[in-house]
Amino acid sequence: MKWSRIAVFASGQGSNFAALAEAERAGQLGGGRIELLVSDRPEAPVAKRAEEAGIPALLLRPKDFASRELYEAEIVAELQRRDIGLIVLAGYMRLITPVLLTPYAGRIVNIHPSLLPAFAGKDAIGQALDYGVKLTGVTVHFVDGGMDTGPVIAQRSVAVEPGDTVESLAERIHQVEYELYPEVVRALAEGKVELEGRKTLIRE
Ligand code: GRF
């Protein structure tokens, strides 16, 4: 199984999905190829973006399955059919169960709009603003069974400006995400990310 064959999981707007697809088109994902979009919300804008980019999509409603495990088993079957090596979560709003985690251990990554471990979970940008931090940012991390708890691969900071709203800060955070995620996905696809315990290293 090759890490270069990528599935992106997303539930919403899919602007990170679009940034990754654009990076691939521009030759910036190295050997990485986005082979599949997986979404738990068939009506989400990201599904349309996949169609426009000519990327196949697996659109499944979890409530059409008897359990979360059966929903994920269907996804795993499709990932294996397509020989997917790397799962990239980009605004996928569900916790992953062992059905998906076990076969893809160490090969699932997520992007989160804060400097973890600060402000894990939902509405990270609102949480940071409410707390009053002066610096927040973006984290790309491996996914484990917890909520935003896996080993950190890369982080980039974004300053909070006086007068920032959730919208204005989100806009600057998104711009950083669109640069950072393709860089890290490229390194992963090329097998350049090493993991030892909680420590990661991106080799040149
Ligand atoms: C991003 O801010 C990402 O950090 C978080 O969910 C958001 C997804 O946005 N995990 P989009 O769907 O890529 O536009």
| Helix count, DSSP H or I runs of 4 or more residues | 6
What composes the largest sheet? 7 strands, mixed
Order of helices and strands: EHEHEHEHEHEEHEE
CATH class: Alpha Beta
| Count of all domains | 1
Task: Give the helix proportion (percent range).
Answer: 25-40%
Large-scale geometry: globular
- How far the N terminus sits from the C terminus, by CA atoms, comes to 23 Å
Q: What is the CATH topology assignment?
A: Rossmann fold
Low-confidence stretches: none
- Gyration radius, rounded: 16 Å
CATH superfamily, please?
Formyl transferase, N-terminal domain
The second-level CATH architecture is 3-Layer(aba) Sandwich
Mean pLDDT: 97
**Cofactors, ions, other ligands:** 5-O-phosphono-beta-D-ribofuranosylamine
Question: What is the total tally of β strands?
Answer: 9
Binned strand content: 15-25%
Strand order of the largest sheet: 3-2-1-4-5-6-7
Tell me the structural class: alpha/beta
